[in-house]
Design brief:
heterodimer, A: alpha+beta, 5-stranded antiparallel sheet, 4-stranded antiparallel sheet, 9 helices, globular, B: alpha+beta, 5-stranded mixed sheet, 5 helices
Chain lengths: ~230, ~160
């Protein structure tokens, strides 16, 4: 629109719709309004209590201006491949709520994220809420490798019940790529050779596979250290 | 495209205008209002030269619509000094030679105001992280960080007296 390529007749401002930015409990889940800014999410006491990893990750997205004006719903609907938040939300159990004149529908996050910059949102739908089951601080870890403004690779690791582990690799492919493994720490080779990798200015395919392996190992080290200190 | 009527307070003065919905805040400030202290460079929020404060929050005015300041207050670099004196942040930037070409300076000053409003006594590391989204090609950043830490001290000391 700024370059004059898109010339809509009208713009509709969603930002002042009451309730779209609220953060509250929904049963035992955390419900975050799609229009909550990243800064608000990062500092919100309920987020810090129920899903502290979300507070930590949103606090580091972009820069302070991006966090003061950018919203969590905007981040998800844009579906930028190099999003920290989409990678984390795929690791957590999260759904998005989409609303249209025909009513509401709820989609799990990995069904919502279809491809790079592509989501399952229809043109006549708006995202209203993101719902996340509580996950305590010791059960999910996120690390990234970043040299420019966006991460080159981001890895979220979540401990599931029964000791299995979900590993989500983000930023290197078009969407976050999720794997469930035993947690013994030997499956990273398989993950690294299976993932889709898009080479770009931040690295060749081989380099990004290498960075992914290192980042996975680092997260597992953090997880192990956390387990050992109880 | 439709024109939208907005009412906003810019540097304390109420302004009423009709603007195209697609106009960015920086275009509005520079071209409509004539406040050219706010600069344009990357147009994708990574450089910080377009920073203004909207209701106290730091905003990339190149990526923000003018219509979104309706009912809100805007502070630009032109509104930082009082009538008679430079602001302590501006004074600190001068004392530390934190300005060379000056192009990035308005953005750094506005971001410093946002930082010190939120965190009155930041560590050096916190300052460095905060300015992740501001680029300077001239100074090498160290004088800027020194100026910000000095400004924090000046403001704390001003409040005590």
């Amino acid at each position: 629109m700024r370059s004059g390529l898109l010339r809509p007749n009208s713009l509709i401002d969603l930002k002042r719709i009451p309730g779209m930015a609220s953060i509250q409990r929904d049963g035992n889940r955390l419900s975050v309004g799609a229009l909550a800014t990243l800064k608000t999410v990062a500092r919100n006491p309920l987020v810090r209590e129920l899903v502290p990893s979300l507070a930590e990750v949103t606090a580091k997205v972009g820069n302070p201006r991006v966090r003061a004006t950018g919203t969590i719903g905007g981040n998800l609907c844009f579906a930028e491949p190099k999003s920290d938040i989409t990678t984390l939300l795929v690791a957590l159990d999260s759904d998005v709520v989409l609303m249209s004149r025909n009513g509401e529908r709820v989609l799990p996050i990995n069904q919502f994220l279809v491809g790079p910059y592509e989501t399952a949102r229809e043109d006549d739908e708006i995202m209203t809420r993101i719902n996340i089951s509580p996950v305590s601080a010791g059960l999910v870890f996120y690390e990234r490798f970043k040299t420019m403004e966006r991460p080159t690779v981001g890895v979220a690791v979540r401990v599931l019940s029964g000791g299995r582990v979900r590993v989500v690799v983000g930023a290197v492919g078009g969407t976050p790529q999720s794997f469930e493994v035993s947690g013994s720490g030997t499956e990273h080779h398989e993950i690294v050779s299976t993932i889709d990798v898009i080479p770009d200015l931040t690295g060749s395919e081989g380099y990004k596979r290498h960075l992914t392996e290192v980042t996975i190992l680092r997260v597992f080290q953090t997880l192990k250290a956390h387990r050992e200190t109880g | 495209m439709k024109l939208v009527e907005i009412v906003t307070a810019i540097n304390g003065r109420t302004v009423e205008r009709s603007v195209p919905a697609r106009m960015t805040l920086v275009e509005f400030l520079r071209n409509e209002i004539g406040l050219t202290g706010t600069k344009v460079s990357c147009e994708l929020q990574v450089c910080g030269v377009c920073t203004v404060l909207v209701d106290g929050e730091p905003v990339s005015s190149c990526a923000y619509l003018a219509v979104d300041v309706d009912g809100r207050s805007v502070l630009t670099v032109e509104g930082v000094a009082s009538r008679d004196n430079l602001h302590p942040v501006q004074q600190a930037f001068i004392s530390h030679f934190a300005i060379q070409c000056g192009y990035c300076t308005p953005g750094f000053v506005m971001m410093t105001l946002a930082l010190l409003e939120d965190n009155k006594n930041p560590t050096r590391s916190e300052v460095e992280t905060f300015f992740d989204g501001n680029i300077c090609r001239c100074t090498g950043y160290i004088p800027i960080i020194d100026a910000v830490l000095d400004a924090a001290e000046r403001l704390i000391s001003d409040r005590m007296h």
